[in-house]
Amino acid sequence: LITTYSMITHTQKRSWEAEQTMKWLQTQEWGIMVLDEVHTIPAKMFRRVLTIVQSHCKLGLTATLLREDDKIADLNFLIGPKLYEANWLELQSRGFIARVQCAEVWCPMTPEFYREYLCCKTSKKLLLYVMNPNKFRAT
């Protein structure tokens, strides 16, 4: 079975077929549950997957074991400890992932945008520098 976290944790009305599928899913005891993007599981809604779907073993996968909150540590008791971590530089040197190329591009504001930027509030400044038309010309 391959599904999404959102499909399993959906709380609104479902079609009859979807309800039957969910009832069947909840009666099964799976050997292994593979959780892609496992760093999202500590979120209140997505952690419900672990109680809705029963499995003997859980395997979490992610390329970014990071969260902005302090809930990444919850994975230790929700899924289990981290068993393997690949070094991205080694993966890159062996050709498994693309080489990263970073460039900083400076785009001065148009005179009209800059004039408005100098005299407006912070929230509008954000919009002005994000939507600077010169950014779209810098490709």
UniProtKB/TrEMBL annotation:
GO molecular function: 3'-5' DNA helicase activity; ATP binding; ATP hydrolysis activity; DNA binding
InterPro entries: ATP-dep_DNA_Helicase (IPR050615), ERCC3_RAD25_C (IPR032438), Helicase/UvrB_N (IPR006935), Helicase_ATP-bd (IPR014001), P-loop_NTPase (IPR027417)
Catalytic activity: Couples ATP hydrolysis with the unwinding of duplex DNA by translocating in the 3'-5' direction; ATP + H2O = ADP + phosphate + H(+)
GO cellular component, one term: nucleotide-excision repair factor 3 complex
Lineage: superkingdom: Eukaryota
A Pfam family assignment: ERCC3_RAD25_C
Stated name of the protein: DNA 3'-5' helicase
Species for this entry: Triatoma infestans
Enzyme class: isomerase
GO BP terms in the entry: transcription initiation at RNA polymerase II promoter
Enzyme Commission number, as recorded: 5.6.2.4
Keyword annotations of the record: ATP-binding, Helicase, Hydrolase, Isomerase, Nucleotide-binding
Gene3D superfamilies: P-loop containing nucleotide triphosphate hydrolases (3.40.50.300)
Domain Helicase ATP-binding stretches: 1-83
